[in-house]
Design a protein that fits this description.
The chain has one domain: Lipocalin (Beta Barrel). The protein is 4% helix and 60% strand. The chain contains one helix and 13 strands, in the order ββββββαβββββββ. The protein has an eight-stranded antiparallel barrel with strand order 1-4-5-7-8-9-10-13. Strands 11-12 form a two-stranded antiparallel sheet. The longest helix is centred in the middle third of the chain and has 8 residues.
């Protein structure tokens, strides 16, 4: 595995996307969150590293204003009461070949569950401004019902409009802090 410089790295919001995919009838809806912050602390022993991320749920963007407003409502996120989603890592496993599993506590609304992120380390290098950056891609799938987000509309038989499984995909650049 490539060496990652030990230190504190802040997510670069301009070069990071926190996105998701959910089944909707016979297709899929994709969306992302526009506002978030995160810190990655890497250690000489990569398994001692940690990550903390906070996402502003009101910044949801699926490309449809009415749908986004509904997702902010009490039917889904209830952003007036629960404005943020948080992820706090609890462990890192080095799978080799620049692949990791990062386990952590995902909190949505008032529910906290342990999830595993499959993480690909995309590399480390300099940027044009004299900084040092790392790139990662992380993915996981969660059940929205397990986090108390169970709004749905029946459309006949056992079929409902919105799927339960949410695929979360994060592509991130982080900048080493001095």
């Amino acid at each position: 595995m490539s060496n990652i410089t030990a230190g504190t790295w802040n997510l670069d919001p301009t070069h990071t996307e926190v996105g998701f995919t959910v089944r909707h009838l016979m297709s899929k809806v994709r969306g992302k969150f526009e506002t978030f912050e995160g810190v990655l602390v890497t250690a000489d022993d990569i398994t001692a590293s940690s990550v903390n991320v906070s996402v502003d749920l009101s910044s949801i963007n699926t490309g449809t204003a009415d749908r986004d407003a509904h997702l902010r409502s009490g039917d889904f996120f209830g952003v007036d009461t629960y404005p943020t989603l948080t992820f706090t890592s609890t462990g890192v496993v080095d799978k080799g070949d620049n692949e990791f599993v990062v386990t952590g506590d995902l909190k949505i609304k008032d529910v906290t569950k342990s999830v595993e992120l499959a993480v690909d380390f995309l590399g480390e290098g300099g940027d044009p401004w004299g900084g040092t950056r790392v790139g990662v891609e992380a993915t996981t799938t969660i059940s929205r019902k397990e986090f108390g987000i169970d709004f749905n509309i029946p459309v006949g038989g056992d079929t409902v409009m919105i799927g339960d499984k949410i695929t979360i995909n994060i592509v991130a650049e982080a900048v080493l802090q001095a």
